[in-house]
Design brief:
By secondary structure, the protein is of the alpha/beta class. It is 30% helix and 27% strand. A five-stranded mixed β-sheet has the order 1-7-6-4-5, with helices on both faces. Strands 8-13-12-11 form a four-stranded mixed β-sheet, with helices on both faces. Strands 2-3 form a two-stranded antiparallel sheet. The longest helix is centred in the last third of the chain and has 21 residues, at 217-237.
Length: 325
Amino acid sequence: MTVTRAVPLGCGHYLPERIVENAEFAKTLETSDEWIKTRSGIERRHFAGPNEKTSDLAIPAAQRALAAAGLEASDLDAIVLATATPDETFPATATRVQHAIGMTHGFAFDVQAVCAGFIYAVGMANSLIQSGQAKTVMVIGAETFSRILDWSDRSTCVLFGDGAGALILSGEPGAGTLADRGVMSVKLHSDGAHHDLLYVDGGPSSTGKAGCVRMQGQRVFQHAVNKLAQVAHEAMDSVGATADDIDWMVPHQANSRIIESTARKTGLSMQKVVMTVHNHGNTSAASIPLALSETVQSGRIRQGDLLLMEAIGGGLAWGAALMRW
């Protein structure tokens, strides 16, 4: 049985120039490099410059993905950009990227599912390709979380960073088996009952201001490990895959302890887990495509590898995607 698969053609990423080591926070907060590393695994993160917007990070990531795929902007039919920190309330930041890379046709829109945004965007792109609405879609995760941090709150401001990653998917025929290249399954969930665990205390219709990140860290940790392991098995079970079939898990880079606990519950060795949280911090929707792009560039992820990607964020919203590179 022939099916249409959303096959990865290339990826790229971009990080702002400014690197902030843990020690910088100790100058203004009751914290230390050891305190931050022990609780999160984070050693440093990148922050956007004063005049850098989310689109300024997304554009070079998009350009690098095009170069890696050997494509021009005219080859794209759509852009799906996941972000919780858009340039403006409207229009979509994706349209800024569309214009900047010289894409003069098709369509571009944003997706907002916070840290799970990239998985949601992959799901949207996969649906567009399978339905025939688009053949080649660029999926981007881009964030400037430094714009919505409370610098007096050590429980949140030390965790997040800025960055962008992009992935290009294109429809190609597959045999309908686990051996196919491309997206195999995407499983998405949300539960608004958990709003107060992780949210931003502002917005256009509530305060008229951007607001700052608020989080109940321990409760988020508990939900994250259980929900991520469950949705990972759901994605695998839907196509008859097992943990033994997975070559790499590319998780949301929120916290090293969450990643390690989720890997154990999923049945994966840490040798199969991509970890970049120590260098990037939590870049929300950008974290998976950043980690993916860096690992592909290093040569560790190779064509034919089966990847398990999973993330959870405010909402709570969570999901997993299985894709053969």
